[in-house]
Amino acid sequence: SEDESLPEFYRVEGALVAEGAPLLPEYRLWVSLHGGNGVFERRRAKVEWDELLRAHAAKAQEKQEEAERQRQRELEAERKRRLIDEELKLRVAEAEAERQRRLAEEERIRALQEEAEHLRRQEEERRQRLMQPRPCEACEATGRCANCEGKGSLEKYYLAPAVKTRTAVPERPGAFGCLPLGCAACGGGGDGASWGGFAAGDGKCGECRGAGVRAAPPGGWPDVQQQQLQ
């Protein structure tokens, strides 16, 4: 019946309706709804109550729609936040990838430079071995003429024709005994007697010119070349 649809309870005049609570009429309207002020007032109260219910329902609907809009705004904000986070992560990953790429490129260049330096040192060592001076075999690395032992001359003996006779050398009157002979191996010559005027040699080895070592031939030592080709 119509009475069964009327609210059973009321609220104090001016009291606010709690959030989510059912709407209750104020005491004055509740009395009129239940016929306490006559039939006419009851009808008028019923119209007023229906308007209050519609307004309450519309307000509740608006709150629900606003809550849904707020939820959608929060979802959109969360979506944008996630997009920003993903973009930031992507940029960080790209920056890290670029950093790793640069490091790899620097490492590659460094390895190439080290390899080039290694090859350069190997080539330098090879050339050093190839062109390394060697001890002179002719003078056993002494630098002295092996023929005269660095003296520049040799001793030549002119014997007298008879013992205890001071007869001169036929080729050089008055010359007898031990006379110096210039070493031909180091540029000297002569003995002042039968071999012409005496001239001392420089005492240096003719192969190394007194250095004690021999320079490599053009292109390097053949035996070292052969070893490097193997």
Give an overview in words.
The protein is mainly alpha-helical. The strands form 2 sheets. A two-stranded antiparallel ribbon has the order 1-4. Strands 2-3 form a two-stranded antiparallel ribbon.
Question: Would you kindly provide a brief summary of this structure?
Answer:
The protein has 230 residues and is mainly alpha-helical. The chain contains three helices and four strands. It is rod-shaped and about 190 Å long.
* Strand segment tally: 4
What is the global morphology? rod-shaped
Instruction: Provide the residue-averaged pLDDT.
Output: 85
Number of helical elements: 3
Structural class: mainly alpha
Rg estimate, integer Å:
64 Å
The profile of the biggest β sheet is: 2 strands, antiparallel
End-to-end span in angstroms?
A: 120 Å
Low-confidence stretches: none
Adjacency order of strands in the biggest sheet: 1-4
- What fraction of the residues are assigned to beta strands by DSSP? 5-15%
Summarize the helix and strand pattern as letters. Answer: HHEEEEH
Q: Give helix % range.
A: 40-55%
Helices and strands in order, then pairings?
Elements: H1 27-33, H2 39-131, E1 134-135, E2 153-158, E3 177-182, E4 213-214, H3 222-229
Antiparallel strand pairs: 1-4, 2-3
Helix pairs in contact: 1-2
What are the main properties of this structure?
47% helix; 7% strand; mainly alpha; 230 residues; 4 strands; two-stranded antiparallel sheet
